[in-house]
Amino acid sequence: MFCVSALLGFQPQPAPTSGGDHDYEPHLPPPALPPVPAGDDGDSGSLSGESVSPSPAVTGKRHHGSPEGPVKDNGGVWWCSVREEVEESRFFVSVINQLTGYSWKCVQREKAQECMVSIKKGEADLVSLEAGLAYTAFINHSMKAIASEIYCDHAKSYEAVAVVNRRACESKENISLMDFKGHRSCHGGYSTAVGWNYPINYITNLINSTEQNDRETATNFFSAVCAPSEVEGFDICSACSKDNETCSEKGIYSGHSGAFRCLVEELGDIAFVKSDTVLLYSMEGPHTQLWSTKSVRDFMYLCPQGGCREINGYPGDCSFGAVPANVIMTHNSMPNKKREHILETLTNNSLVDALHVPNNFSGHLFSPSTQALDTIEKVTRLYLGKSASISQSIQKLNAPETGANSYKADNGSEESSSSSYICSSQVMTMLSLLMSLLILGILTPK
Fold this sequence. Notes:
One of its GO terms (biological process) is iron ion transport. InterPro entries: Transferrin-like_dom. It is built from 13 helices and 14 strands. It has 446 residues and is an alpha/beta fold. Helix content is 35%, strand content 15%. It has 2 domains: 174 residues, D-Maltodextrin-Binding Protein, domain 2 (3-Layer(aba) Sandwich), CATH 3.40.190.10; 167 residues, Periplasmic binding protein-like II (D-Maltodextrin-Binding Protein, domain 2, 3-Layer(aba) Sandwich).
């Protein structure tokens, strides 16, 4: 397998310059993976050392894509896929089922938030998420990251970039992000790391808009915004929807490819995407689509500090920063044996070819540039690192009072805690003294 930039003949540059259901029968040699016995769900436990009983199985017959909960057969693994991801999910688990004696199945949901809820209810086990949504799952749904994607050159992160039309870069020598104030923007998803959190956090600091929440910052900076959301009711669609409510039920403007499509179709003037998105989905790319009508040469990276750079997959310092690789998440209550089997299966070399599915699939369960999957050894908050910090900053903008109180609670010094204790003790002492005097006054004969 080749990296996209190498496949298209691009090389790194050191400095920026101005300017429905399918039946699959894959045939792969079976690896030496022993099946996990049915009924291992009784062995509860988590990485945190807490013993938590697993959620009960959901019973009843269902069909793929239906809103009802799935049947969780004893010892099975349910993978929750979002919208069109279900095609690749079914392909992937069909390969797994040939390799192991374990039963893997897919369940489809319309939004990532629904997958998080399904996992929390015990209706599903796994979901693949990018870093921004992974933080949401970690904070709000008691979930943890157990495996990550690996990219070209064994990379476990990718760059968050802004992409603009070449003509914009050629029209002004030292063009910067501020030049796009009042223009239209394309974001792969609200609360996603690359599509939202990194650029909006940068803009917040750039214009010092700490009095506004993230949505206000975006809609005041840009004239129109296309930002689908994986959480119900948070879409911002003034740039890509006539009704300005939802950015298409089919998610055609969701994700990195959706944000780039928004730019290609000239619904927006700037797109916030992963660094290799244009290489993958331009008319020369390996994942070209019907809407891929423009060349990679028609676009450039817009450097946050100013200037533009040729698109080659290696933006260097012409980015908003590195984002940890997409992760596979599960609930904290998943039994240890089941988690160990899942990790042993996902990281097996015999599954590598299954990560690269036919190009006619409309959605991707994994990033198209994924080379393999690897176990995450760190706890989720540490794995997410800078991305988690930026996500937390965005949340504090949306709930400043709650954020401030939470920050004080988490970071209060021993001195302040001691002072509070001393103050409370003094009050109690005074009250006791007054009560004693009152009682003495009542009992003392006159």
